[in-house]
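ok here's APA family basic amino acid/polyamine antiporter:
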Amino acid sequence: MAGSIFGRRKGLGDWRNYSGNRALRRTLTWPHLVALGVGAIVGTGIYTLIGIGAGKAGPAVIVSFAIAGIVCACAALAYAELATMMPAAGSAYSYSYVALNEPVAWIVGWSLVLEYTVVCAAVAVGWSGYAVGFLNSWGVTIPHAFAAGPHAGGIINVPAVVITMALAGLLALGTRESAFVNTLLVVLKMSALALFIVLALPAFDTANLEPFAPYGWGSVEVGGNTVGVAAGAALIFFAFYGFDAVSTAAEEAKNPGRDLTIGIIGSMVICTAVYMAVAAAAIGAMPVAEFAASGEPLAHVLRSLNWPGAAQLIGAGAIVAMPTVLLAFMYGQSRIFFAIARDGLLPERLSHVNARTGTPVLMTMVTAVVVSIISGLLPLGEIAELANTGTLAAFIAIGVSLIVLRRRAPDAERQFRVPFHLPIALIAIGGCLYLFISLPEKTQLRFLVWNLIGVAVYLAYGMRKSLIAAASRKEA
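and the structure:
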């Protein structure tokens, strides 16, 4: 261990050693975690990205949803086993630290920082589109310069910045308080989607499914854009993940073994069913080309069906409910940062928990500032694709960690065991690699640049400052 960074690993029970201002309070039950998972998963992906995904895959975006859903389901099963084995904040970062080694864990953690930060920004931008459309329907106009970033001819997306800072303030107040508000908003969100299905499904027309896969089943470049069913799945993948945010709450669950399993798997089952129903209703009700370019595709479909009042309700539902995604991912991002800093790979003061609220307030506010900058300036599509790279890297690490720990620690206590773990893990790993290859080259390049920066940070700071490195020096 002392001689090589590649030999540095944490033990299965090391998560139990944290106390004082380095430990989080156990205040959450399984209903909170299911709501956290549903809140994280159902949001920008179905309210906004369904239009962008349909533009890439045509009506076959339904298949794109299925591909992404299968890959995420396999990853969710792996998460459930690892999270109940090691109910520690940090998600895939913490599991990789135990199963693989410190450098890999750092790259996974650095990728998760990218995922969570950029997801928050994407959701803030998606929310802004619905908020601006909703306000316009009531005669309130936000000047374009302050409703869009430079990419769309504006200056800064002010609504995206405002919602980000507001939710950061709520998270800083306390975990249980945030969970209560999140649960209420999730109920409103699911009610709005149920209304959409009831109104749009009767207008289903099979003619809208032709041609079903206009750009083919793979991933090709057309006019500078990456399109096809696989390209759609690589983007739509963004719409499914979020269950991993549940695993970041492991240290705050009252009964981790039961609550995490129900939270992770339950939220995936609920959301997959809802997604498929909403996608089928939207695509069957209107030709893809007519809603693919809309910033608020579900509301646009209802307006075209002569349901203007319901369209306003859908817009209001998005405005009220999409922040649950932002809330869940900002929560998760702050816990990822917290776990990394607690291990000494980032300055330890970032891991301090506020004595009154029981939350890492400093890390929450740092997250909010970074998210505000990104969401205020960048477009939704590119943000979502970049977020996917970090998640795909984490899911690959989860699959590998599951295989490694089944071999290295076969008798370790597992509250939940993945059935047929090897094929499930291999589907997760292979599926994520396939989706990564299907992303645009510029997105892959940005991910590479991000991780090169991460390697530099690790070599300059984390490699020397990690608690395991310090313990090794004392032993020597």
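+1. The first helix runs from residue 30 to 41.
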